[in-house]
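Q: Could you fold this chain for me?
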Amino acid sequence: INEAPSPLTVRMNKFTKQISFLIIIVSILLIALMLIKGFKIDEIFMSIVSLAVSAMPEGLPLALTLALTIGSSRMSNKNVIVKKLNAVESLGSCTVIASDKTGTLTVNEQTAKKILLPNGSIYKISGTGYYDDGKVIGSKEYTERIKEISLMGFLNNEAGIECVDNIWTSYGDSIDIAFLTLARKTGVDKSKYEIVGRIPYESENKYSAVFYEENGKYKVTTKGAVDTIIELCDEMYDGNNIAKIDKDIILKQNEELASYGYRVIALAANTVNEFQNKEFYEKKDIPKLVFLGLIAFIDPIREEVKYSIKKCKQAGIKVLMITGDHPLTAYSIAKELEIANSNLQVADGNMIAKELEKGHESFDKFVKTKTVYTRVTPLQKLEIVEALKRNGDFVAVTGDGVNDSPAIKSANIGVAMGSGSDVAKETSDMIIIDDNFMSIVFGIEEGRNAYANIRKVIYMLISCGLAEVLFFVLSIFTNMPMPLVAVQLLWLNLVTDGLQDLALSFEKEEDDIMNDKPRDPKESVFDKLLTSEILLSGIFMGIMVYIVWFVLLKVINMDVDIARGYVMTLMVFIQNIHAINCRSEKKSIFKINMFSNKLFLVAVFGSIGLQLLIMNIPFLSHILKVEPINAQHMILLFALSLPMLLLMEIYKIIRKKKYN
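A: Sure. Below is the predicted structure, expressed as structure tokens.
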């Protein structure tokens, strides 16, 4: 499976080409203009190189890496471990989350709650979780049947559980662990049974089997999906007697339990008349069985999942459930979580297989109409993910088992559970330590915030670069002296972009970040909003500084060298004021906590302080060819930079009214 590049990689590659092309074109035009105006070759060369360096957002790669690293660190604090930095932003771009049910939407602590015998007798089981407190409640008439069912679940088991110093530890499948807990509650004696062979559970087979010896006789027991187990049986227990199996009764019991959200496991057993002791056993080694009964398990929904799914819907993210449960069980849980509101949104493995036979075009349309997939094989799960991608979705897939690995690998963003297999973790892009769906939502928020901060950095760097280029072009075009010499341009680039862009990477997420719809993965960085912001702010700054430059030289008749110091200081003020604008593309800066990003305050006030310092230290001012400016003029220059703040605040208000 070929890994598609992340949305951020696609956007940055496109952005790099766009900005490089623009700088080359502008440089060529400037060279031509300066030659026409009679500038010297060495002067042209130094100015163009300095201006190109100033316009090029060379701080972006570091700021981008920092934003993703910060996002990764914040995710880890919320139990999301990121294996690749690009995965931070990728998770924020997802449009669909295809989630496993058990352990992600539920707590993954299965508890046996009911035992149903084929004759309709119902036994309730008290207690919750993997603790052994509780008992079986019901008629004593069929106590032996109940103990036999518990024993079969105990023997046909690959899990383990123990209590040491009042602390319970367990390993293995949650259903197997629940069977071990049930065996403790019913007081099963395991001493006289020896397991001699087994058929491990596989999702494709939907059952497991164990061959065991009891008092010199060989027997077999199976457990698994109801429709699979009854096909292995020709008889059933009718009370304490054996009768011909009635599949309709059993299937009806199964559907009734499943409709209430129970996960139902069937058990069957029989004696093996001709037993062959060998290393591997197959389905053909299982004789016709006697159906024992059904056990209904409940796995409680995590308390925070409903809220998490609501936030996903609010963010325009579709949540799908993919599970091995019975369709009615899955639908009951999906309905409670508001993932599905009709049975028509549920598809089982048989439906998926039939649709796949019709080809990709038909299957892709089919996938658009479903939100719950049940009894799916690993290959079917992979096909669902591929169909979602063909439909234009950016897909996050969660899983924990080896069988989930193909889908996790195929997904745009693969998410493994912390309790999952090593194969799933190795295949994934990130790991959810606590197996909690809410942690995925936290990850999406941080991913969106990381990209929002990257946009803020681009917004600031490109608009400031545009202002400098425009100021330069207007000055040359109107036959005025070169506004800033090479060393001044480089200093301006350092003092206005050097730390501010990095500081913007530390911005906290905005309250309404999950109200936005997911961005199209193919969308350019320069969308309508960012383009309009850059043009408006960049052109305003460039014209504002040019007007001051014009007044200083043509109206006041100030010396060129002194005037350069004035406009350079004005540019330091106005670009730092604009950096404050860039803290949010939509929110008024007066509604943002000034101290929520202390590094940003240090960067802004530090750069302004540095500018004032170099102007008043003779050695440094000589290098930069500037003179000290008196306090009154300094205050006036600062005041001239404030309209920048007002302009962008008005723009945010107008835009908010337009789109609300």
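A (continued): The longest strand covers residues 193-202.
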